[in-house]
């Protein structure tokens, strides 16, 4: 997964000048590869006195201005084997912690596994919300009824919960 950050010099920003550099994480050494290049007035031996901030980023999850750059670099290293937020989500042990629906493929196996009788299936479908019988995904809503979901809806759900997915990934892996 690609994570790009624009790290800026805070002192120069406060003086009205936005300076900094785009960096793709992970890097080998945050101090040497990013902070030393910002002319922060300190050095890696004596500290940077938090004179930097993340003024922009490109990632599928939220990154704050003052997020810990070292921890973010460690996260980026752990995410190197994942291409998308969906890949990260699928690798989680506890998907419920993300706030996402527990989504299944919309096929016969879903109905065979989730329901004990055809009457239960009929009730869950009748009172549910099947948008289209050709939708790719299905889930059981809070009332115990079936709702279908398109690929677009599924990806949107993952993107809307990307920060929670990343938090759960950190809890499980870092």
UniProtKB/TrEMBL annotation:
Family matches, as Gene3D superfamilies: Antirestriction protein ArdA, domain 1 (3.10.20.480)
Alphabetical list of InterPro entries matching this protein: ArdA (IPR009899), ArdA_dom1 (IPR041895)
A Pfam entry, by short name: ArdA
Top-level division of the source organism's lineage: Bacteria
Annotated protein name in UniProt: Antirestriction protein ArdA
Organism: Limosilactobacillus reuteri
Origin organism lineage: Bacteria, Bacillati, Bacillota, Bacilli, Lactobacillales
